[in-house]
From TrEMBL:
Superkingdom of origin: Bacteria
Protein name: proline dehydrogenase
EC category name: oxidoreductase
UniProt entry tagged with the keyword Metal-binding: no
Comment on bound cofactor: Binds 1 FAD per subunit.
Residues at which FAD binds: M136, Q165, K189, G190, A191, K203, T228, H229
Lineage: Bacteria, Bacillati, Bacillota, Bacilli, Bacillales
This protein's pathway: Amino-acid degradation; L-proline degradation into L-glutamate; L-glutamate from L-proline: step 1/2
Length: 309
């Protein structure tokens, strides 16, 4: 990553946490171009997109957007929203599961109440035969997120997993340990701003650690969700799996809604399991800004779209 790109990314990721910018943007709704990455503001919008993806052979994970909430009432609203969502997935026979962010359930405000709320969601999912993924947020929450999953497993709720980020130095150890504990993992490169004391600053090191994590996980024999749009890594996974006789049922590819859609469709046609991460809801701003920070060209796309409608 050159210095200009790094500066651009840092500035945008700073904006993701800015409350004033968030309020202003969310007031102007999807008109800012967020609709390219967010499947609408309501559950009905998201279910419509989920069905369309299912029809193309692509599974989904639905994310009711929200993070870093300010009150426990908001946490309760997230809990109710997710219970509704799980029931809708079951009712509409969507091939899908859900992803949630622990700070959306009050991890920063009251960890005990956050745990209880997430447990309510995971129990409901368990009752319906569905799976819940705890997304991984920035590093202050890494241990707490893993602990929530471990506690739920210890209570017999095994239908919950989490995410490990390749940019963190600690991640190889985490993948080894959590694979031994049979925790379902999604592997990603990592989307937040982290200091060099804990995370690889250079993209090439993140990419090579991503391969190391994927290899470690696949060799453990545990199911592996590989979440990337990086075609070099995807090609490498396909040939690595072939050469090690790892069956296609041992892993899945995951990508974000609205990104590399033709690639998602072609992998599904080839017979790979593909899951699209479908975010929806009114609190779309931080998610949207992280997508812009990942690729400078997205900002150009959004600016152009503002002037062409
Ligand atoms: P990159 O090397 O960044 O990108 C490879 C190529 O993909 C780029 O050249 C570009 O063509 C395309 N691309 C990548 N990003 C974009 C974009 N925003 N817009 C358009 N094209 C793009 N991160 C977390 O920290 N925690 C999570 O819980 C988490 N969950 C995720 C779930 C899913 C299903 C996915 C796909 C990603 C998730 N991420 C999460 C984000 C992830 O960490 C990366 O920030 C993101 O996926 C970009 O990295 P990449 O692997 O696609 O590779």
């Amino acid at each position: 990553m050159d210095a200009g790109t790094r500066l651009f990314r840092t500035a945008l990721l700073g904006l993701a946490g800015n409350r004033a910018a968030r309020k202003l943007s969310e007031r102007y709704g999807m008109r800012l171009g967020a609709g390219r990455f967010v499947a609408g503001e309501t559950m009905e919008d998201a279910l419509k997109h989920a069905k369309r993806l299912n029809d193309a052979g692509i599974a989904v994970t639905l994310d009711l957007l929200g993070e870093s909430i300010q009150s426990l009432e908001e946490a309760k609203a997230s809990e109710l929203g997710y219970v509704d969502l799980l029931q809708a997935i079951d009712r509409d026979q969507i091939n899908g599961n859900v992803s949630l962010k622990p700070t959306q359930f009050g991890l920063a405000l009251d960890p005990d109440s956050c745990y209880d709320s997430i447990r309510t969601v995971v129990r409901e999912a368990d009752r319906l035969g569905l799976f819940v993924r705890l997304d991984m947020e920035d590093s202050p929450w890494t241990d707490a997120t893993i602990d929530i999953v471990r506690r739920l497993h210890a209570e017999g709720l095994k239908n919950v997993g989490t995410v490990i980020q390749a940019y963190l130095y600690r991640s190889v150890q985490d993948v080894k340990q959590l694979s031994a504990e049979r925790v379902n993992l999604r592997l990603v490169k990592g989307a937040y701003k982290e200091p060099a004391s804990i995370a690889f600053p250079a993209k090439k090191d993140v990419d090579s650690n991503m391969r190391r994590l994927i290899r470690t996980r696949l060799e453990s024999g545990e199911y592996t969700a590989i979440a990337t749009h990086d075609e070099t890594i995807i090609r490498w996974v396909k040939s690595y799996a072939r050469s090690r006789r790892i069956p296609r049922t041992a892993f899945e590819f995951q990508m974000l809604y609205g990104i590399r859609t033709p690639l998602q469709e072609s992998l599904a046609r080839e017979g790979y399991t593909v899951r699209s991460y479908v975010p929806f809801g009114r609190s779309w701003y931080p998610y949207f800004v992280r997508r812009l920070a990942e690729r400078p060209a997205n900002v150009t796309f959004i600016v152009k779209s503002l002037f062409t409608r």
